[in-house]
Give the backbone structure.
Amino acid sequence: MSNSQRLPKGSVSIEGFQGWLRLRLPRQLYGGKQKYLTLGMADTLENRKAAELKARQIELDIISDNFDATLELIRANL
């Protein structure tokens, strides 16, 4: 992704990794360290749509100060 195509700071992005989907969480939530949330879903078009919904929900949680940095609630709802 080029610099002109970067997501805004605080965005959650979706990645395919070894055939599975994961979410890349914003670094500023974890003191500059990169964190990922593995979704346990194969990298398919249908699952990417579901991952997109989860990513947007996490972004809304971040904006509204309801984000659980431990990820316990998010993992429980996967």
